[in-house]
Design brief:
Elements lengths: L3 E5 L3 H6 L1 H7 L5 H15 L2 E7 L2 E13 L3 E11 L8 H15 L4 E4 L6 H10 L17
Parallel strand pairs: 4-5
Antiparallel strand pairs: 1-2, 2-3, 3-4
Length: 147
């Protein structure tokens, strides 16, 4: 880790530059759908997409949004957090998650929450052991046939 920087991705070209890494987490997405979803989420849901650069190379990406709910109160929901497969276990995930914590605190949010796929055991260890997150619930999902 020589020269780390974190930048919010704004233009379509910047957002597209993060796609190869985001695709490692969101394997079902195609480029066009990814661009459309990011644009709509930014426009309608306060979604923020940030990239962590090591020198000039994107090594990790995160997408998150502020929320206010009765369960979490004023919180930030991490929708996406992924480090390039070849760069994992280098501290990049911790750097980005710590950035989100700081971002949230600066804006008076009281917690950061996320969900993680059941099969992602290494990620669970990272969140619980390294970042001190607590398991507080299960997330359930139902696909709607006639969308």
């Amino acid at each position: 880790m020589e020269a780390l920087s974190i930048k919010e991705l704004q233009s379509a070209a910047e957002i597209l530059s993060a796609f190869p890494i985001m695709k490692q987490l969101r394997t079902h997405l195609k480029e066009e759908e990814y661009l459309q979803l990011v644009a709509e989420a930014r426009d309608k849901d306060q979604y923020h997409l940030f990239a962590l650069y090591d020198a000039d190379e994107i090594v990790a990406v995160t997408g998150f949004k502020p929320m206010i709910t009765l369960y979490y109160g004023r919180s930030v929901w991490v929708c996406d957090l992924v480090t390039a497969e070849s760069k994992r276990s280098s501290g990049y995930g911790e750097t980005l998650l710590s950035f989100i914590h700081d971002w949230a605190k600066e804006r008076n949010y009281v917690s950061v929450a996320l969900s993680s796929g059941l099969q992602r055991h290494n990620a669970h260890r990272f969140y619980e052991d390294k970042m001190d997150y607590k398991r507080v619930s299960y997330v359930f999902k139902k696909e709607l046939d006639d969308y």
